[in-house]
């Protein structure tokens, strides 16, 4: 007998085919959902949906529409609840309850419309405005960007010279990454780190709110890169990648009042890391994207 009053989507169950860890997590999700429904006295209010790393179930909590989120317990979003609690609904979805040990969150329910409904520059302007609300002093328990960038930069420095990535880019990113790792300004601000078009949803109480943070105690200038690599098919369709990327970059930097040079350096570092991981995954197209973005913001 099923633990849940609904069937899990076949596309969600397919996550189990990735590897044994994913299979174990997918197998655990019905138990996690059922436990939260009972413990928090929730009523299912529609069919579930999912992204790459979480299942979301529409529910009603004390007569109020809400969303129950069960996430894959990987490193980046494990402190999502801490960031959402700290923001307390200012610029981001409001956290209603949390069970961090099970990676289960009860969130306010937002509207099913994201920034893909706007053109890319208008979307960048919305995100730039959100930066001003979200970038507050980080809570002390949050992981630090300086530690993350130091670790990733060491990995990048160990990349073989034969790797299909311009050596000048590798050396530049290693130099910048090590400088950032020792810079006091690299830590201290609560940053989302994955704020892009699909991680901003419409809401009743605000036009737009951020969701799905992968938070760090970091530097506001670290933020723009995801808005550059997202909606990449539109960049290709423009037949002028340099111009399209630069328009997005300047909409973000100018709209948020960021230092252009520092934001550009962080884009270079993040794209070099993305390229490194793409090489490990055997994804040459993603390497090309990273190199294209890096050249566009520097030219």
Helix content: 40-55%
**Low-confidence stretches at least 5 residues in length (pLDDT < 50)?**
none
Mean pLDDT: 94
Query: How many distinct folded domains?
Result: 2
- Distance, first to last CA: 61 Å
Q: What is the class of the largest domain in the CATH system? A: Alpha Beta
CATH fold name of the largest domain: Aminoglycoside 3'-phosphotransferase, Chain: A, domain 2
Q: Count the strands?
A: 10
* Tertiary shape: globular
Quick structural overview:
The protein has 299 residues and is α+β, with helices and mostly antiparallel strands. It has helices at residues 10-13, 20-39, 80-87, 120-134, 145-157, 167-181, 225-229, 232-238, 241-256, 260-281, 284-298; strands at residues 42-44, 49-50, 54-61, 64-71, 95-99, 104-108, 189-191, 200-202, 208-210, 216-218. The strands form three sheets. Strands 1, 2, 3, 4, 5 and 6 form a six-stranded antiparallel β-sheet that branches. It has a two-stranded antiparallel sheet with strand order 7-10.
């Amino acid at each position: 007998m099923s633990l849940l009053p609904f069937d899990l989507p076949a596309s969600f169950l397919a996550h189990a085919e990735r590897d044994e860890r994913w299979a174990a997590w997918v197998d655990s999700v019905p138990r996690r959902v059922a436990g939260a429904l009972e413990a928090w006295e929730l009523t299912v209010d529609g069919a579930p949906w999912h992204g790459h790393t979480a299942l979301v179930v529409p529910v009603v909590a004390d007569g109020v529409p809400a969303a129950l989120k069960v996430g894959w317990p990987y490193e980046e979003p494990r402190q999502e609840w801490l960031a959402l609690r700290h923001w307390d609904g200012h610029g981001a979805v409001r956290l209603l309850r949390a069970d961090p040990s099970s990676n289960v969150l009860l969130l306010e329910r937002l509207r099913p419309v994201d920034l893909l409904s706007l053109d890319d520059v208008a979307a960048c302007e919305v995100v730039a405005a959100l930066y001003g609300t979200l970038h507050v002093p980080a809570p002390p328990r949050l992981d630090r960007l300086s530690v993350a960038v130091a670790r990733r930069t060491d990995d990048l420095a160990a990349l073989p010279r034969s790797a299909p990535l311009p050596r000048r880019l590798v050396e530049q990113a290693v130099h910048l990454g090590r400088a950032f790792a020792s810079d006091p300004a690299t830590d201290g601000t609560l940053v989302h780190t994955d704020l892009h078009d699909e991680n901003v949803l419409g809401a009743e109480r605000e036009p737009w709110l951020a969701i799905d943070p992968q938070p760090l105690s970091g530097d506001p200038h670290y933020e723009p890169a995801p808005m550059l690599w997202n909606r990449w098919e539109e960049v290709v369709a423009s037949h002028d990648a340099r111009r399209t990327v630069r328009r997005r970059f300047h909409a973000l930097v100018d709209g948020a009042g960021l230092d252009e040079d520092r934001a550009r350096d962080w884009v270079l570092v993040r794209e070099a890391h993305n390229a490194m991981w793409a090489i490990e995954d055997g994804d040459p197209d993603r390497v090309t994207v990273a190199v294209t973005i890096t050249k566009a913001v520097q030219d």
